[in-house]
Amino acid sequence: MPRDIQLQVTPEIAHNETLLHLHVAKLMQVTGSDIQKIVIEKRSIDARQKAVKFNLKALVYFSDEVYTSQKNVLPEYPNVTHSQEVIVVGAGPAGLFAALQLIELGLKPIVLERGKDVRGRRRDLKAINVDHIVNEDSNYCFGEGGAGTYSDGKLYTRSKKRGDVDRILRLLVGFGASDEILVEAHPHIGTNKLPQIIQDIREKIIECGGQVFFETKVVDILLKNNEVEGVLTQKGDKIVANKIILATGHSARDIFQLLHHKEIYIEAKPFALGVRAEHPQSLIDSVQYSCDYRGQYLPPAPYSIVKQVNGRGMYSFCMCPGGVVAPCATSPGEVVTNGWSPSKRDQATANSGIVVELRVEDFKPFAKYGPLAGLAFQKDIEQRAWQLAGKTQRVPAQKMVDFSQKKQSTEIPKTSYVPGTTSVELGQVFPSFLTQTLREGFIQFGKSMRGYFTNEAILHAPESRTSSPVRIPRASDTLEHVQIKGLYPCGEGAGYAGGIISAAIDGEKCALKIAESLKKM
Predict the structure, then answer these.
(1) CB of 337 within 8 A of CB of 162?
(2) Omega before 413 within 30 of 0, i.e. cis
(3) Is 215 exposed, middle or buried (0-12, 13-18, 19+ CB in 10 A)?
(4) What average pLDDT does range 158-176 have in this prediction?
(5) What's the CA gap between 134 and 381, in Å, rounded?
(6) Where does the record place the FAD/NAD(P)-binding domain (predicted)?
(7) Most Cβ neighbours (<10 Å): which of 98, 270, 284, 392?
(8) For residue 28, which phi and psi values (nearest 5 degrees)?
(9) Read out DSSP for 430-470?
């Protein structure tokens, strides 16, 4: 039987199979020939000391043991062409993994996506970056794969209690992701590799008899006696089903407005909002690794930081080592930022959302919008940023120290944000309580991460789409909407997930609950 070991090694040993083999043999007081294979199960970096180490959890197979390479395979998906149909609105991770789970359970998903397929989205991303043209249905947030497809592909989640994280990771490997995502403590696919995986998931859904429709925007949910009967699309097509998974993402404002208009119960939800801070990656490396040069064996350094400032949490969000800042508006007349990294994380800059916790009471100036007050708060800031930066997709920007000292930056160096920047005193973008929290918080961040608080860092505003400003309440036992039978609010847009993995898990959960309810009928 292989032996479990945990060890800490230098970066060079961690990345050299021969050196690792010799190190483990010495540690276990055996000869090198006694060890047949070392299988790394988990890998993480410990940068708390000046000498950075890798923590490894491994299985050691000895020469007299049988070692068989394990390959991740997909489940045996049945053909569901003639099975009962379930409408899935949205082809983000929640919708796609809901569809796969429905097929596994013998049900037929009909996936309706307002945006384009994963390849078609690229032209619209170029249009927003180069020509400042926002396609409301095809952008960084909308389209096949959802917001995660072209914004990094991070697979790390703290939500272990929500479901089987490893199952989702194994499925992703089955669809073409590197099996390294099963090993790394903070797995990441990369914006350049995720599109093919998303396409392969779609092709599997269709191969098994499911249906996927792009550029098919849902404009109404058809109801009778508080039960769903189907949906109406913008093309005038009526699609009938008595089970609907609503997985439309955190930026589908028209869906929130539709629900509110139909008097389907929704509620305002706290979220977080702030800026996207960009540093030279080399500076973050020196701060995190305590060295002038990280060398060939250490990856570009990430960071994670949380502070309590003026009674509010202020923290890093969606940190992108070796990545870029991207324009993520979903309507003309607004500016929104996000960040992403390619799989190699080889860009010269690092960026992270730096955001402040908001409370429902912060939305009081927009109380007339009822449960959409948080959405109106969010939209007001995005539209103000658009106006201040010149009414294009240029983004308001300021050097970090200048911001904390209330000085408009005389010039903004070129950043990774392709549409460009406009020097703005960012206190004009945000409400005063939020501005003051950010100003004081950056100073505190600098005390914890020496070198972080610098004018080499450029702030881009706003980072406003951290999570949904609306929750669509559902029953904890059935996951159905508390008022509408057959409607399953799902994923980030409904307020029940926060990233690719947790959204995928939530999609599977909703599919399982639908199968359970159908068995009882």
Answers:
(1) no
(2) no
(3) middle
(4) 82
(5) 18
(6) 85-254
(7) 98
(8) -90, 0
(9) S-HHHHHHHHHHHHHHHHHSTT-SSTTSEEEEEE--SS-SE
